[in-house]
Write a structure and sequence with these properties.
Length: about 350
């Protein structure tokens, strides 16, 4: 098992986030265009624009599936919330889908997570009363449901509350940026770099990853050249029937501790510390690589290196990052599983 990360105290970390200026310290991307001169999106390394950064909080409980619009996200974070469940933070800048959802509330971990992106727009359904002043003081543009019309945050009659709020991201960004001229930052590098497959690593067929009451797994698809995700043992399909997944999946080992906030049932809100340094895994090209992540301050980008100190390059494309404090289970490449199904049992790394 990897060593535990060096933890920066919760109050100190949040304080840094709240006092940060709107121009964050970024790690420069190695290139902004490809060989043909086409502009590259800083978050995916693929041809595309670097539009305003929109964070959308998305429910990740069973009733919320299938989720909407995640296939168009540049980055998707998996976070632990109350009761050991997970919630997603989907980041959009290059493409905005017609709809995203179901939209849910923000959490304390989101403040540090967003700080490395600059002054972003946050789309969410609300927050705990005690947490609202902290969120209001953070370096974000609050474009949540409490301040926007029902034409932008609507209710899906085919779903039940609280997993029925659906966002129109195009209308939200148009209103916020083009009409109201809100200063939402455009996408720039947040630390990771794109490049060739690193040397070494271990071939794997798939992996599984658990939180106290939530579980993800994936298998490598050589045909699609991406990890195909499963949620709670079933293919993780979006509302269009497409199985979610990405060419780069990162397991970022973090400390997860109780914050001072809690829900109406008394369950404390966990805080995932993404500032400091720690270990994890880079999963790409059917291989797993042990990595170290480093992020000195909330406004710094997160860099990723191999044990030999060289850059752990990501594969261009959508990036998923799982914030977790439990060891993953990897399925050796010699054990075959049908594409889209859960990996066969195997030993933990």
């Amino acid at each position: 098992m990897h060593k535990k990360i060096i933890v920066i105290a919760l109050l100190g970390t949040v304080s840094l986030s709240l006092t940060s200026c709107s121009t964050s310290t970024k790690v420069a991307s190695p290139r902004s265009t490809n060989a043909s001169g086409a502009s590259l999106n800083a978050l995916t390394g693929l041809p595309g624009k670097n539009g305003p950064v929109l964070f959308v909080k998305v429910d990740d409980t069973p009733p919320a599936h299938p989720q909407i619009g995640l296939n168009s996200a540049d980055v998707v974070y998996i976070e632990q919330v109350e009761g050991g469940l997970t919630r997603l933070a989907a980041v959009f800048s290059s493409t905005l889908p017609p709809k995203v959802g179901p939209v849910r509330s923000a959490r304390i971990s989101d403040i540090d997570l967003m700080a490395q992106y600059g002054h972003v727009g946050l789309a969410f359904s609300g927050a705990q009363t005690k947490f609202l002043p902290v969120l209001d003081a953070a370096n974000i543009e609050d474009i949540g449901a409490d301040h926007e019309p029902a034409s932008i945050y609507s209710r899906d009659a085919t779903r039940t509350a609280p997993t029925n709020m659906i966002l129109d991201p195009n209308a939200l960004i148009n209103k916020s940026v083009n009409v109201e001229h809100r200063p939402i930052a455009s996408a720039t590098s947040v630390g990771w770099q794109f490049g060739p497959t690193p040397s070494g690593g271990t071939p794997i067929q798939g992996f599984s990853l658990s939180w106290p009451t939530s579980k993800y797994s994936a298998v490598w698809s050589a045909t699609q050249q991406r990890w195909l995700l499963n949620y709670e043992g079933n293919p993780d399909l979006d509302s269009d029937g497409i199985q979610l997944g990405s060419p780069t999946f990162v397991i970022q080992e973090v400390s997860i501790t109780d914050s001072i906030y809690h829900d109406h049932l008394g369950n404390y809100t966990p805080f995932s510390n993404t500032v400091g340094t720690g270990t994890g895994y880079l999963l790409r090209d059917g291989r797993e690589f042990a990595v170290t992540w480093n992020r000195p301050t909330p406004t710094s980008g997160t860099t990723w290196t191999l044990p030999n100190g060289q850059t752990a390059y990501f594969h261009p494309g959508q990036v998923w990052v799982a914030l977790n404090d439990q060891q993953p289970v990897f399925t050796p490449a010699t054990v075959s599983s049908p594409a889209g199904s859960s990996p066969a049992p195997s030993s933990s790394k």
